[in-house]
Amino acid sequence: MEDKLMLQDLDLEDKRVLMRVDFNVPLDDNGQITDDTRIREALPSIQYILQHDASLILMSHLGRPKGKKNPKMSLAPCAKRLSDLLHKPVYMAPDCIGPEVEKMVKSLKPGEILLLENLRFYDEEENPEKNPSFAKNLSKLGDLYVNDAFGTAHRAHSSTAIITQYFPDKAAAGFLIEKEIAFLGDCLEDPKRPFYAVIGGSKISTKIGAVVHLAEKVDALFLGGGMFYTFMKMQGKKVGDSICEEDQLENARKIIQRCQERKIPLYLPVDIVIAKGFSNDAEKKVILASEDIPDGWQGMSIGPKTIEEWKKALHKAKMVFWNGPLGVFEFPEFAKSTMEMAAIISDLHAITIAGGGDSIAAINAANVGDKFSHLSTGGGASLEFLEFGHLPGIDALSER
Fold it and tell me: What is the CB-side half-sphere exposure of residue 145 using CA atoms within 13 A?
């Protein structure tokens, strides 16, 4: 990262700065923002640019509109929230490209901000090969380019990677990306020992690469959430109606084997909460993880004994990386384990790093965010960085 151009390397005065941010925030049914962490995390870069007499054009995506304009996924609520946080107007563009947007950009004065409409209203944002001119049209809006959207840095999209070719020697990393890479880089390069990883989430397939890589780095691995039922099945247990990836059984076996070869503890749940149906008010009970899950029932969360066992083991940690919920977090009845884990990790005398939307939501709901060393704004991006040591959106930035 030291060899990449940084925001503080740019001469900003009287320039138009086009900055990719990650304002992909959760909205309720009324279109109100329920967690503005990602907007707040972009503030240091935004304020720095405005203080240096530049005008600022922000671009982001929100949700998955699949290349079609959808008013429910407009970034307008983000413009309003950002305006409240900055105590100054944030102008909202009706689109992200086109003559009307170009006109609005030209009329911006130093210290003013314009937020472009959702980039993913265009299919070519996620599929640049379909129309390479989309990135070119976006690039017309700025003199300088800054990427501060860590949450999408693992995607080679039009606004995160392709666009940089139109800004030779003028494409820089923002402060959030710089901070994210500093913390995650420590996990890879120089972790404090003992270094533990707690990995949850529903699917093993989306995290297998990172988990295999972490198994080489950590002093203990804790695996829970939906991915555990694939491990259960691999060990010959019946998993009822639980989420289970049959094509990942061999990978689950490899993880167990690698931990044994390295002689590091692998903590899997000793008990689980199961339910008769996938809903908040389904009948539930706790069973031992050594038992079969009956037909018609499904695993919903790690159980209370597991939480106690993990709490004792985590106590020794000097560094912890946590990614992914340990139960079905969207249902309050099954969110308890994830909330308790947030409280346990926040109390450790250790460097604590958490990534992923549900983990962060649990941390914020438990009001312990300020006790974590670092909350990563990108779950997928942080896992991919830990797996590969670099990301397409950062690779594409100018060399210093």
Answer: 29
Q: Measure the CA–CA gap between 333 and 327, rounded to whole angstroms.
A: 10
* The residue type at 379: G
Q: Which of 179, 203, 262, 371 is catalytic?
A: 203
Query: How much of the chain exceeds pLDDT 90, in percent?
Result: 88
Structure tokens at 254: 């490899």
324 annotated active-site: no
Catalytic residue, candidates 4, 15, 16, 38: 38
In the block, tokens 């903590």 appear at 267
Q: Would you call 371 a catalytic residue per the annotation?
A: no
Both structure tokens of 336: 């308890």
Other CB atoms closer than 10 Å to residue 400's CB: what's the count? 11
pLDDT digits (tens, 9 = 90+) for 81-91: 999 999 999 99
Give the pTM: 0.90
Q: By CB neighbour count within 10 A (0-12 exposed, 13-18 middle, 19+ buried), where does 247 fall?
A: exposed
Tokens of residue 14, six digits: 């009287």
Q: Is 393 known to be catalytic?
A: no
The average confidence (pLDDT) of the chain is: 95
β-pair type (113-115, 144-147): unpaired
Residue 357 has pLDDT above 80, yes or no: no
Q: Among the options 142, 226, 380, 393, which is catalytic?
A: 380
Is residue 357 part of the annotated active site? The answer reads yes
Q: Can you tell me the mean pLDDT for 140-164?
A: 97
Determine the Cα–Cα distance for residues 157 and 190; give it in Å rounded to an integer: 31
